[in-house]
Amino acid sequence: MLFRYSFSGFHYLTRQKFLDGNQTESSYNFLMPSPTTETKSTRQGDASASSSPWYRGVTSYQWLVLAIASAGWVFDSFEGQVFNLTRDHLLTDILHLGINAPEIKQYGDILLAVFLVGGTVGGLLFGSVADKWGRRPAMAATILMYSVFSGLTFFATNLWHVGVLRFLVAMGVGGEWAVAASLVAEIFPARSRAHASGIFHATSVLGTWCAALAGMAVGAQWRYAYLIGILPALLILWVRSSVQEPESWKQAGTKAASGEGKQLGSFRDLLLNPQWNRRALLGMLLAAIGLGSFWGVTVAGQDLVKQLLLSNGVDLETARKKAQFAYGIVQTIGGGLGLVSFGPLCVWLGRKRAFMLMHIAAFIIVPVTCYLPSTYTQLLILLPIFGFLTLSIHAGYAIYFPELFPNHLRATGTGFCFNGGRILAASILVISGWLKAMPGMDLRLAITILGCLFPLGVIVIYFLPETKGQQLPE
Q: What GO annotations for molecular function exist for this entry (predicted)?
């Protein structure tokens, strides 16, 4: 049941005029929307959503698209997480260093930064490709790319081999997300879009679980975990045979070809048109905060567990395996629940207030998780909450970014926001690696400092428009 918020006496902090695809201005509200700014379509959408479940009326083809997009994203997540869960053994083997060498953590964060840069390049490239030539060929190309280069990591013998291959894997990962997120948003009706997009992004936890199980199964034989990564190539057959191009994209292509519409996938239009460039740049900043905090804070849950166990006298190999389980399974359960919950939260509170609430909650939970537990059991209790609050905002990117851009720029804009954020997050990762490797630096303090990124997200989302209940821009 959706509620309308109409509190008398509430004073708006600011109102900023900003051109929207169908509106002349948007109200930038801090907490509650003004009832006077509701459009007729919004009221009708809310009424419809309140009278029946969001999934009622969803067609079998729409469920099929969600399944295919989610399968691609599951393997995306596997490709990203498998390095995090095998990097100690990988770098020890490649660099011929001791397992406790500080260079392991430093080079690990550098390679994660390389991964983010590759995701940026792939997201920008394939987002534009998807707008110009279609969602289906772009999705097939990205899946093939990350599958093949993940499998080739099996043969890596030098650090630069790993760096190049992780960059190429990331290009496929970043491109697939931009295409799949746009496709799900275009296929589902407005009343179901937030739920479906949230589910799409939430399936990433399945990839994390698969990576965790693979990492625990192969142990020091890290190469076999990457060989598994070639399996997603089989998805291409499903994509090619089942996915159809959205009607909205076809219509935009027809208009562009006849000269009546805008050019498809144009970065010039995205970045120079004041109607869209503000959204693109602010969306990129929002994603940078989420991605930087994910790799610097959320993923560090594994390191927190390992450090706590070692300080309690547990041997290194046992500590590593327990840390993999704690992060890859226990924390990820909470993260998955957070991702699934973010869609309904967006429907209830609106996109902006959902983002604000979870950024603030994430900021609070970080020092609590770092400093409160003194035993493995206590940390296991906190980790699902830590995962829930720090990871949930990522589902919002799949929900929110496609709603900001018109048909001819949707994948381009979505890819620019999410994957452009990766390039900014890469610099955060370099800082994270330097901070955590500083002599005498307490890991808990380093993670708490990096957790200060979350309040910045509240500031960024404040200046973006609310899209709850609105049709996608045309």
A: carboxylic acid transmembrane transporter activity
